[in-house]
Amino acid sequence: MPIETATRPVHVVAAEEGSDRVPEMTGVLHADGRTVLAHTLPGGLARAGDLDERERLQQELSLASGAVRAALADDGLLLLADGRASLVVPEMMRVLLDEQGMGWDDAWARVQATVFARLGSPGDQPGTLWSTGQLEEECPRLLEVLYEVNRRHLDLAEERWPGQVDHRRNVSLFREGEVKRLRLGLLPVVGSARAEVAKPWRGPAAEILADLREMRGEALRARPTPVRAPRWLQEANPPLAAALTLALGERWQTTPEAFDDLEALAFEPGFRGAFRSARRSNRERLAELLRDATGVETDPGALVDVRLGSLLGRERALLGVLGLVREHLRITAGGWTPPAPRTVVIAREAGAGSGGERVLALARAAADVINGDDRARPVLRVAVLPECSEATAHLLAAAADLSNQASTAGSGAAGTRALGFAMNGAVTLGTRDGTVRELELAVGAENLFLFGLGPFETRAWREGRVYRPRDVYTIDPLVRLSVDELVSNRYAPEPGAHDWVRETLLDENDPWLVLADFGEYVHRQDEALAEFADPRRFTEKAVVTLARCRRFWAGSLDLDA
Fold first, then answer.
1. For the chain, which domains are there?
2. Beta pairing class for 380-388 and 342-349
3. pLDDT-derived band of residue 560, with 50, 70 and 90 as boundaries?
């Protein structure tokens, strides 16, 4: 007999953007007294996105197999943190059918009693990936299982909507077309005891999830991405925690509803002053760390603009470096005086793997030129951290005034760390990607600096092949000057060292559409800096952000079927 659900070990599985949520889920489950084992791709592969497709599929199949066998060995639960981890569903069916000799109905009941999912906000359409041809070549038996799961699933859809082809097409696990593909994002909903998907549900994703909700009832729920508040605020930001205790009492640490009173304090001069004092204290701590780690002296009164991530493609670190070059040129050649000084911190998170070295070297080269320029030094400083520990990430969140989330909309690169920064009161500058879409819903667009194409536009531009970066380069002098200077000897340590940047940015097959959003990115950066020069206005946004992030506080992860 299986042991009770409430005491079964939990295996958390992530194959892509969900790797960012694993530490949060693990912390919450540990706090509930659970035994937790994490299964993720090694060395940052979950975020790389540039592996050979065959190699990537093999990695994900191996991950699914290992997680399934571990869960069957200890009678544990499987908690999926993203859609790409859902290959555990057919893999568990295969093991139960072929290796343990179970019948289909018993095996399916076992799977649905074992698998749970806690997913991020869907993009323009729940994840479409892996052609049936690829699956046939690498794992033909798994494809047979998937076809049978889908057949039975569509039979249930036909019973609910007789003769209504549109509904059947919506909920099918396969997308028909020139190339037939498995829709991985639907598997956790179909094959789990319960799937929780973060809002917002919009566009095609909303229609698909609405149909699946009608089929599965309470087994599909809308839930915010969970963030463990003690990890990001109580333990990592003592100055702000002290200010909150003084204003709200001790209850805020255990009762998120206490933050209902905090929003009103955003408009009280006394609390705004206490908030700014806490932020100043954190900036001073950060200035000391940056001086010791990079040798860069920073102004504790400057806006702290943080770009923390893996520095891989979809996060568009190139967009940030190009923006820095543009700002440097405006200060030195254009005679522009910014309304407030800015400290930019570019940090590669721990566990990011071997990707991103070229971008890291590029950022360092640009930082060296900017920091060595007497004309720019009073108003712009840049620090580059090649390896950012968890403790450093927490300090960055505590000190950040601006959380820079420049990822391509719909890529899912904006993850839990964006919520952790907002939970500390950092104002978000970003695209409508991943958790930034959740922040827009929770905090209000007026309290964010949103820019760029949305998920629908990025998909349309890719599929319609309408992105012409060379046209953008030719027509827009801002883009042309910034790109030319970035690859020039002014910023390159040696001739030709940055030529790859031009090739990447002007490639019509660039999946991240970097230049499409450059003009608006620069514009919104300017707006954020201008608002920071008005302490009252910027602090009100920061405190309202902090107050409204209470919806993301994770109490516990209910894994009762």
1. 5-222 (3.40.50.2000), 229-552 (3.40.50.2000)
2. parallel
3. low
